[in-house]
Design brief:
alpha/beta; 10 helices; binds NADP nicotinamide-adenine-dinucleotide phosphate; Rossmann fold
Length: 290
């Protein structure tokens, strides 16, 4: 039986992976889930010991420093988790030839070009978080059995994310200001989790080989944060007025790309998948709420 390790498993993506791992599709695989208290990915010695000791065949690395604004003040901490540790994971995987799937971000792009970003486009991050994630992408892609899947605007019914924040604030407030001049695509973490497991299972079963490949994955469609917030409020039937505002009216420590839509052509054709539209996935996520 092949063994998959999910790191950073208490995060929103990790929790979606846990939920899917219990389904019959994966009954022939053994899953291990760790987070910083059980396996700190910045501890190279522990990582090597864990991978060798547990006979790991594949890692899905969801561990990350994800506080984009705090990363401006804590650049070293962000770089250690997002930039350095993925390389250490790759080194530990190389000892055993394990497959490594790492999750990257659309924030590696500067958003100056209003055309969907392809994998081969030059990444010029605007923030400390983006720079640290780009370093991690490069480290994993240097490993012959390393694959990176970049995603954008991740949300789920679990954890800390824009969807949950808007849902909570719309209950508390009559009016919400949300920026309309940053455009991208939301990604339901459950959809991404399915794709990561498909990559893992294809690779472990010999159906596919994805060494040193970079993929972009988000839901289909394009929207602003304002559109996303409005749809959340409308679909959940809340009575809160969502007002469009400009980024300049809502200053934050980290700069964000104004446009970060990604082209999904490569992953769609390599995995032969249909990608759901963000509005359809949002409805699915809302149906998971209590
Ligand atoms: N969220 C987004 O909008 C978004 C967009 C694009 C890409 N992504 C990428 O998607 C991936 C998953 O994101 P997510 O939203 O699921 O993140 P998340 O909810 O913040 O989960 C990340 C998990 O990693 C853990 N972690 C932090 N440092 C660690 C360490 N040194 N060792 C082991 N675990 C550690 C965190 O623990 P603590 O909570 O205790 O720190 C947390 O449980 C990340 O690579 C992220 O960069 C996210």
């Amino acid at each position: 039986m092949k063994t998959l390790l999910v790191t950073g498993a208490r995060g929103q993506l990790g929790q979606e992976l846990q939920g899917l791992s219990y389904t019959h599709l994966f009954r022939n695989y053994r899953f291990l889930f760790t987070d910083v208290d059980t396996l700190d990915i910045t501890d190279a010695g522990k990582v090597e010991e864990y991978i060798a000791g547990n006979g790991i065949d594949c890692i899905i690395n969801c561990a990350s420093y994800t506080n984009v604004d705090k990363a401006e003040a804590e650049q070293d901490a962000a770089m250690l988790v997002n930039g350095t540790a993925p390389g250490m994971l790759a080194g530990a995987c190389a000892e055993k030839g394990a497959f490594l799937i790492h999750v990257g971000t659309d924030f590696v792009f500067d958003g100056e070009r209003p055309v969907p970003y392809r994998e081969e486009d030059t990444a010029t991050p605007l923030s400390s978080y983006g720079r640290s994630k780009l370093e991690g992408d490069r480290a994993v892609l240097g490993y012959e059995r390393g694959t990176v899947v970049r995603t954008s605007w991740l949300y789920s019914s679990y954890g800390h994310n824009f969807f949950r924040t808007i849902h909570r604030l719309a209950v508390e407030k009559d009016e919400l200001n949300v920026v309309y001049d940053q455009v991208g695509t939301p990604t339901y973490a459950r959809d991404l989790a399915r794709v990561l497991l498909l990559l893992a299972v294809n690779s472990l079963s010999g159906k596919g080989s994805y060494g040193q490949e970079l993929f972009h994955y988000s839901n289909e469609g394009v929207c602003s944060w304002y559109d996303f917030a409005l749809e959340i409020v409308t679909l959940t039937g809340m009575h809160c007025h969502v007002r469009p505002v400009e980024t300049d009216q809502y200053p934050l420590p980290a700069r964000r790309p104004r446009y970060s839509v990604m082209s999904k052509a490569r992953i769609r054709s390599r995995l032969e998948i249909d990608i759901p539209h963000w509005k359809e996935s949002l409805r699915n996520c809302i149906s998971q709420l209590d």
